[in-house]
Structures are given as C-alpha cells and as structure tokens.
Amino acid sequence: MELRQLTYFEAVARCGGFTRAAEQLHVAQSAVSAQIRLLEAELGAELFTRTTRRVTLTEAGELLLHRVRRAFGELDGARADLEDLAAVLTGRVTLGATAVLGGFDLPGALAGFNRRYPGVALSLRTGLIADLLTRLDDGTADLVVGPVHADLPSRFSARTIAHESVVLIVPPGHRLARTRATAPAGKRRAGPRPLDANLTHERPIDLGEARDEPFVCLPAGSGLRAILDEAARAAGFTAWVPFESHSAASIRELVSAGLGVALLAGTAAETPGPPVAVVPLADAPAHPAIGVIHHRDRRLGAATRACRRHLIDIAASRPPTG
Asked: Hey, what domains does the chain have and what are their CATH numbers?
C-alpha cells in the first residue's frame, strides 16, 4: 500500500469520480484508475461501485476512507510540527518585562529557553507595564511579563504565572518600624544584621497610620500609583507624593535614604538591597497577578509560541509558596 494510492483513493471519494479526481491531481485518469485497481487487489476488497454515471464508495471503501483521512490528518499535523520546529530553531523573540515579577525567576527561565533553543535570537526590554504594552501594540515586543491589571485592554491576552502582594516599606528606625531585624528572604542567618537586611514589622498596621508621611511612588498613571491612591482613599486620606521614581529599585533606595515611605510589591521589598523596614498592612490592597501577555490581533511566530509555553511551564513547575 503506497501513499500515492491512498491519495488517489481519497481524491476519487471526495470528487465523486475518476475524471474530476484526475483533474484535481493533475494526472491522467488512466493513472488514477490503475492505482485504485492495485489498491483494491492488495486489500482484497472493492472500494468503489462504478456505474456509467457515478462512482460511490462501498462499505469497505467507507471504512478505508475514515482511516485514510485520519492518517492524513496526522501527517498534516506532523508537517506543521516540523515546520514549527524549524521556525523555532531560527526565530526571534523580543520580550518585555517589568521589575516586579512576583518571585518568578525570569533570568533563569530565559537561560533555560536559550539552552533549549540556542538558535533563537532572544532579546529583553524592561520598563513600566504601560510602556511595554505600547511595545506590544507597535510590534516592537512579542511578549510581556508583568502585572495584569483589571483594566487590561481586551486586545491583549494574559496567562497568570505568579502572584504578588503589597507591603508598606519605611526607613529603618522610622516611627512605624517597631520591628525585629531579619535578613532578606532565603538568606536568614544568625549574627549581626547584614548591610542589606530588611526589618520585618511585628504586627500589621493600618495604612492610615502613614497618612502624614511623604510617599515615594511611580508616576501618576502607573499601576502602583493607582494602588496607592485607592488604598489611601479607602483609609480616609490622600497620599502626598513628593518623590516620583520610575522603578521599584529606586523607590526602595529613596525610602532607605529616609525621604519617605512607599507601597511596594512584597518581592521587591524582600530582595537584597538598601535596608528598609517591611511593614505588613492589616487590610493590604491587592496586587495584580503577574502574567505572560500578548496581543490578540498579532499572530505569534513559532519561536514566540515556544517561549510563551516555556515560561508558562516553568511557572507551573514552581513549588507552591507560603
């Protein structure tokens, strides 16, 4: 049984006759008839009932057609998979990412992808989520990893890969820092407090206790600023923000220097860096989940699809926290 014979058989069944099948296959009708006779001889069954006016499938032909079309579907899938693999091996992916990723190890995930697909030209751009979504719009980014805010426009699609929390950070020795000293998460050790140690508050406080403090935050229009404004409103005050910054790291630096207090993602507050006191909030505002975001109206290339799958799989393989 040859693939050519099965191709001719399927064409005759679909076209309802040898002449139309031969025209579609761009071969002589006699060649189609000969291959069908060889196939019937090999199978020991008549596949078509032939009359002067029409050709119809026999019961044996119906059974074979079902199997043949299923086999052709598998072959088409295999071809598509191989084409995707070839495209991944030579593709390009531009990824955008925010600084706050809910503990998701993006450098490690990208290193793993690079090892798996060394031929892919992988690049990374960092920034605020609004700027990165603009990159998705204009096609200068293929994927974005960052917070998925409730007002994410419908033209974007997101898949959650991590969760995040919100804490208050204040300078060490601040009146709100009634604390005990601890090393950053994952680096606790006995002895004197290291230079980059944080201070963890003994009990949650209400954000209203910080109403008279200067705040450090991202600019107006950012997701973090919206979280601060809403949380302050719920606590009965309007936050005074004399210090604006463009990254979580610089927010922490300004707070550590004693210039104000700030709401910050928990993972950004707990990573090594300038010392701050981490103050949990009794009614902490919700932080958007971290997701992999792409533009619905842009077809993802094979390499981009592979990268997206890789990031989601890495996130799914992480042990639960807490």
From this structure: 3-88 (1.10.10.10), 97-158+290-317 (3.40.190.10), 166-279 (3.40.190.10)
